[in-house]
Amino acid sequence: MLNFVFLLFLQMLNYLVVVVVLGKQGQCSYQGLTMFDQAVWSPKPCVTCLCSAGQVVCDELTCPPVDCLFPFTPPGRCCPVCTDPGRSNMEPRKKEAAEREAREMERKLEEERRRQEELLREELLNMDEEEEVWLRGDVFQMLPKEPEDLQPAPIPKPPAATKLEEEREVEEEHEEEHEEDHEVEHEVEREHEVEREHEEEKEHEEEHEVEKEHEAEREHEEEANRGGLPPGCDISDVTVTCENAKLTYFPPLTIPELKSLSLEGNSISSIPAEAFNGIPNLEWINLKKNKLTSAGIDAKAFKGLKMLSRLYLDGNLLEVIPPDLPPTLQELKINENQLREIDDNSFQDLSSLVILELEGNLLSEGNTDPLAFNPLIQLSYLRLGRNHFRTVPQGLPRSLLELHLENNLIEEISETVFNQTINLNLVSLRHNKLDESRIAPMAWINHRHLESIDLSHNELYLVPSYLPRSLVHLVLVGNNIERIPGYVFAHMDPGLEYLYLSYNKLDGEGIEPESFFGSYDSMVELCLDNNQLLSVPSGINAMTNLHFLRLNNNKIRSIPEESICDPNHSGDATLVALRLENNYIDPQKVSPSAFSCVRASSSVVLKPQKSDRILHKTKN
Known about the structure:
620 residues
């Protein structure tokens, strides 16, 4: 505000012409103009001149120093101001000192302005008094009239329009100053906001770093407490799961209450002696897909495990069964290894073992001791698939219920091979080299509990005779079977329920009227698809309990009215699903009563037929 008043005063001086006293000495000449003694004027902004005893004395307003990179002098002002954020970045104490210095300078300028106004006022009063004396005529004489060119020019008065323009300019300057002050304040606020954001980011980064350090310390402590396990492992009170964690050693754990340990998918190659001393109460150990070798497992590795019931060692490099396994074991899996031998001591003391899986190894009847299975008095489930057996192993335990010998080289089933395994319930021999002539007539006919036999994908040419009396489920898929002998199922009691003969070479002559004798009341599911049948086999309409019948993908051309359903049967419809597609049947020629034993017409699949596809290709 003080700057504004002082500026207004300087601008008013531009119009000032001192009233002269005629005949006064000490006049000054400035830029062609005659200035009388003690006259004051402003030739340019911020400069004040005084005529004193014929000498022109000018004084220029001294501006306070500014501390910024880009000073700027606004229109109508004398002193520059800061336009860059330099001052706003000053320290608070320096900024406050600069403001005090500026206020002190403005105060001094105001005092100087007032002093000059007072001097000017006194000069004007003196001039008025002299003029009054001169006009009063103290000397009682009138001085001769001076020439007009020597008379001072009257003081010009600005017109009204000029005053309005000055007022408008003053207002505009005031508004500009206000806007500049507002912009400066806004810029300061923005800079303060940026500084606050930087400080907050810095604080956040520092907090994040501290948190990371604490997290690393916690992980280090946890790792120390959990026997060196990597962070990705899942650890609970009774379970440790550390799968695919790139472990190369067996971790030294000390968790007495631990019940379950899974280290599957690592690179562990050895188990040292007494490795489980810190976890003696384990019940399940999973070491699948590691690099364990027989030499790498110490003879005392499993010592001290008093409650272990399940041990999984699949997918390693073992050549023999690990020694001195805990006698509490109930399930042992060593699939997909390199086992080359099973001796009479391999299963010593494993009398509690119920499930044994040794698939995908190098075992054969030549390297498997018949006495090896003697200790396994409770063994119920044995898998020896994907090995090199040519005969069924000897000495199998009496307790055995399921025997799986898939994908071997078995060519023969002798009469005595199953003499001891009288409790067998299931035998799987699929993908071997058996034919019906190499199956001894008395091999299993007297078994009372054998209900399921899988002989699929062998070299059979007809359905084997002398099948077990108790047989319920017979799978013969993917052989070369051309004939089902008559009465082959007649001795079975209570009777065969599931017969799968898909993908064989059966034709119309290979099935006799008596082929299914003995299974008319028991058969539930019959699959004869993907053969070479020319018609619906006889005897099917007599199967009163049949639920599923597959005759698709044959060469059947017609469906006689009584070939599938017996019109004289008064019971409820039993057939749930009937597949007849991909034959040569004309659906329009099939009598609706031909499917009277089918529970729902939607359960009959008749399309597409081969003749339909041939016709379609011809049209195209």
